[in-house]
């Protein structure tokens, strides 16, 4: 007898994503934490006593929290490519670099041959291109999405290891172009290793009417920058969840599960894959613009291959395909990378009198974490429902063994029936 599907029963299946009530609980939790963090660093932290203030400055500075939020944006973008569409991307840092340099070109005095101002926070007499941070977010995202389509085009016919190798190549080429871009046919395009410093502050516009909000947010306005980065992360979460439950998200999941079956069912593979690259690159461009304002500049040596590995580890640790798990993985690994390993090392060395360089062992820790996750929890800390079901279902050999054992038990039970009449009655039952 045919079994009714979840949709026919009025319920939800694993393809429908997490229930809306679960999303509401996660969103409410993150909003409450964000409000608590802002209130603490804006109103409580400045008045703390010496030891307590030193503890938070060393273990959880607001700058590390802001950088972790930038990594959240990056991880959410890679989750679209890897977690939703199943396209292994080892060169995601390229999109981050493109977004960062877009901010450097449009929010600084780097292009001194022109003087263009469009809502920027710099004085009108400043040379260069100075466009509003909010407009550069959109421009950087769209420009990076275009490059995502260009980079993704040659990889449409590739799968698995070959796809990873090609994306790794792109991830190595583009940062090197920026690093050596101080002389491109006689023109200085990226200022080479010196980078583009500084970039404009974040203009607040009408928000400056609020209490304690300045006309522009500089490096010392970290709590209000935290609010902006939280808003950007929330936007990426909203878009990810809406895409996940929509037609495009279902097409991505179909390609991830079985590309051949998806094409036979009418899913346009090329267009769907390019959409995944474009959306993921858009998030990466937004993260690049945010990172440029976070460090107040763009430096070519900040966009190396290790960033791609870190972001991929965040997605794997949190749970590929699950937005909330990816956020947790990004926050945890970003804190370890920026502050955690250094402070743990200082505490350990001062307690035991050793001189171990813990920050240099960061990637060793990441490797150990990935190995342990693959051995004991392949689906991640907060796995997607369908991924959990696929990874936990028994192998084909185990199913065959179970079926053989069941047939043997039935044969033994039949042999225990001695009377021919009772045996016929047992068979009919």
In short:
The protein is mostly helical. The chain has 16 helices and five strands. It has a three-stranded mixed β-sheet. The protein has a two-stranded antiparallel ribbon with strand order 4-5.
Key terms for this structure?
429 residues, mainly alpha, ABC transporter involved in vitamin B12 uptake, BtuC, three-stranded mixed beta sheet, two-stranded antiparallel sheet, globular
Task: Lay out the secondary structure.
Layout: H1 20-44, H2 50-59, H3 62-84, H4 93-106, E1 107-108, E2 115-118, E3 128-131, H5 133-152, H6 160-179, E4 202-203, E5 216-217, H7 222-245, H8 247-257, H9 259-264, H10 269-295, H11 305-318, H12 323-352, H13 362-376, H14 385-392, H15 396-415, H16 420-428
Parallel strand pairs: 2-3
Antiparallel strand pairs: 1-3, 4-5
Helix pairs in contact: 1-7, 3-7, 3-10, 3-11, 3-12, 4-5, 4-6, 4-10, 5-10, 7-8, 7-10, 8-10, 11-12, 11-13
């Amino acid at each position: 007898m045919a079994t009714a599907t979840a949709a026919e029963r009025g319920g939800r299946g694993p393809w429908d994503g997490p229930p809306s009530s679960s999303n509401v609980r996660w969103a409410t939790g993150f909003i409450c934490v964000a409000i608590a963090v802002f209130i603490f660093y804006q109103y409580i932290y400045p008045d703390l006593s010496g030891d307590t203030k030193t503890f938070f400055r060393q273990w959880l500075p607001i700058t590390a929290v802001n950088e972790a939020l930038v990594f959240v944006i990056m991880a959410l973008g890679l989750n679209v490519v890897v977690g939703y569409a199943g396209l292994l991307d080892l060169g995601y840092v390229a999109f981050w670099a493109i977004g960062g340099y877009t901010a450097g070109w449009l929010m600084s005095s780097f292009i001194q041959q022109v003087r263009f101002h469009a809502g920027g926070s710099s004085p009108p007499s400043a040379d260069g291109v100075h466009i509003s941070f909010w407009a550069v977010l959109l421009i950087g995202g769209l420009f990076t999405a275009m490059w995502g389509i260009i980079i993704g085009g040659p990889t449409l016919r590739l799968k698995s290891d070959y796809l990873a190798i090609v994306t790794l190549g792109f991830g190595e080429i583009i940062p090197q172009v920026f690093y050596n871009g101080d002389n491109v046919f006689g023109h200085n395009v990226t200022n080479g290793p010196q980078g583009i410093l500084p970039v404009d502050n974040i203009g607040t516009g009408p928000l400056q009417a609020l209490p304690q909000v300045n006309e522009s947010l500089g490096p010392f306005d970290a709590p209000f920058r935290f609010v902006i980065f939280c808003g950007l992360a929330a936007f990426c979460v909203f878009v990810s969840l809406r895409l996940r439950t929509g037609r495009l998200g279902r097409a991505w999941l179909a390609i991830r599960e079985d590309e051949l079956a998806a094409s036979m069912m009418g899913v346009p593979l090329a267009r769907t894959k390019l959409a995944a690259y474009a959306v993921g690159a858009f998030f990466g461009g937004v993260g690049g613009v945010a990172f440029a304002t976070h460090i107040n500049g763009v430096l070519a040596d900040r966009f190396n291959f290790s960033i791609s590995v870190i972001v991929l580890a965040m997605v794997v640790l949190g749970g590929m395909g699950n937005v909330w798990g990816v956020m947790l993985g990004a926050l945890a690994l970003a804190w370890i990378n920026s502050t955690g390993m250094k402070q743990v090392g200082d505490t350990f060395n001062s307690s035991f009198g050793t001189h171990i360089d813990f920050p240099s062992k960061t990637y060793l820790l990441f490797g150990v974490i990935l190995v342990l996750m693959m051995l004991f929890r392949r689906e991640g800390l907060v796995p997607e429902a369908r991924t959990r079901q696929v990874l936990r279902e028994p192998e084909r050999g185990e199913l065959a063994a179970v079926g053989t054992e069941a047939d043997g038990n039935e044969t033994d039970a039949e042999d225990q029936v001695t009377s021919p009449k009772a045996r016929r009655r047992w068979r009919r039952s």
